[in-house]
Design brief:
Blueprint: H1 7-10, E1 27-28, H2 42-50, H3 68-78, E2 85-88, H4 91-102, E3 109-112, H5 118-125, E4 130-133, E5 152-156, H6 168-177, E6 183-186, E7 207-212, E8 225-228, H7 231-241, H8 251-262, H9 264-287, E9 291-292, E10 299-303, H10 309-318, E11 321-322, E12 335-338, H11 342-356
Parallel strand pairs: 1-11, 3-4, 3-5, 5-6, 6-7
Antiparallel strand pairs: 2-8, 7-8, 9-10, 10-12
Helix pairs in contact: 2-8, 3-8, 4-5, 4-7, 9-11
The structure holds 4'-deoxy-4'-aminopyridoxal-5'-phosphate.
4'-deoxy-4'-aminopyridoxal-5'-phosphate is lined by residues 90-92, 116, 156, 160, 186, 188, 212, 214, 220, 225.
Length: 358
């Protein structure tokens, strides 16, 4: 840190992304990426924008700040109007904007004590006071803990890193008990088997649903997230966008998003495969004595009495398998394991057996 940095940005701990190492080829199960490529047509759409098809491309032109074509495609896909859709450079961007727009200035933020690590960072970045609401001892979220909080609420559903989901009814209960504040439901992993609360958008003007193309649509590298809400909330997000970077989604990514939605059956099929692999991997881990939380996401959260979380993480890394370990209260015994291909999961299980000497 230089001596010039505004102390406001010096005080807090920044978010630590999962490792993206280059020292060797790992079986990479640490950042919840899809093991499958993006839908057919996506690469061609990107190439067309960039001129890779030999026709010159359009990179010299700014991207559409309205993102009209992609928003229309998302609106059609989810049965809403263009005015209900906001798109961004990864869903992290929307989360940040939401903390900026709907919390602070006396409005406290509330989110679970164990959840996506960025919520705390965005709160601190934006000078928002926050309370981390403890999950139950079994990591379940009790909606009653969110009764009448009168603050901005952010909940990942399914939650990360636990993979546990709450029902749409639970979300509705939280919305009803907090009618004067925004409730953000982060559905980054919803396509892997949780109940989306998108149908509630029509009825609740305080609901902001956030999703991403990073997981279920195999496009983490394209950086594309979106939010669906009533027009008034979308207008608020646009106020922040037009005050920071109106061209926050680039041409290649806009084109990739439209192409991915044209082939969305491809993505649905990949989700089905991942859910199937998840079930088999969970069983196999349980057969090795692991306790594995029921997951509605593309990862498993698991611990064993036979080996510590950090120890297993390090032993797997030595053997070329990367998983995610959080050295944090309540969850240091666990590892979060992304569901890869069946072959990748076989490697993981073989290495775990080797480590446990089973
Ligand atoms: N929300 C949750 C719960 C996540 O785990 C992630 C992925 N790290 C994100 C949001 C952000 O995803 P992206 O910015 O790639 O859309």
């Amino acid at each position: 840190m230089s001596r010039y940095l505004n102390p406001r940005y010096a005080a807090f701990e920044v978010y630590t992304p999962g490792e993206q190492p280059r020292d060797m080829q790992y079986v990479k199960l640490n950042t919840n990426e899809s093991p499958y490529p993006a839908a057919p047509g996506v690469a061609e759409a990107v190439a067309r924008e960039a001129g890779g098809d030999g026709a010159g491309g359009r990179l010299q032109l700014y991207s559409d700040p309205e993102c009209a074509e992609l928003r229309d495609a998302l609106a059609a896909r989810y049965g809403v109007k263009r005015e209900n859709v906001y798109v961004s450079n990864g869903s992290d961007d929307i989360l940040n904007f939401a903390f900026m727009a709907f919390a602070g200035n006396g409005v406290r933020a509330f989110f679970p004590d164990i959840s996506y690590g960025f919520y705390k960072v965005f709160a601190e970045l934006n000078g928002v006071e926050y309370t981390q609401v403890p999950l139950k001892p079994d990591f379940r979220l009790d909606p009653a803990d969110y009764m009448g909080l009168n603050g901005f609420i952010a909940i990942a559903n399914p939650n990360a890193p636990t993979g546990l989901a709450i029902s749409r009814k639970d979300v509705e209960y939280i919305l009803k008990w907090n009618p004067d504040r925004v409730v953000l439901i982060d559905e980054a992993y919803v396509d892997f088997g949780a109940e989306s609360c998108l149908p509630l958008v029509r009825e609740y003007d305080n609901l902001l649903v956030v999703q991403t193309f990073s997981k279920s649509r195999s496009m983490a590298g394209a950086r594309l997230g979106f939010a669906i809400a009533q027009k008034t909330l979308i207008d608020d997000l646009n106020r922040i966008k037009y005050s920071t970077n109106p061209y926050n989604v680039n041409r290649m990514t806009l084109a990739a998003g439209v192409a991915a939605l044209q082939n969305d059956a491809w993505n649905t099929e990949n989700c089905r495969r991942i859910i199937e692999t998840r079930g088999r991997a969970k069983q196999a881990l349980e057969a090795l004595g692991f306790e594995v939380l029921p997951s509605s996401a593309n990862f498993l959260f698991a611990r064993s009495d036979r080996i510590g979380g950090g120890e297993l993480y390090r032993a797997l890394k030595q053997r070329g398998v990367l998983v995610r370990h959080f050295e944090a209260p309540r969850i240091a015994d666990y590892n979060r394991i992304t569901v890869g291909t069946p072959e990748q999961m076989d490697v993981l299980l073989a290495k775990i057996k080797e480590i446990l000497g089973a």
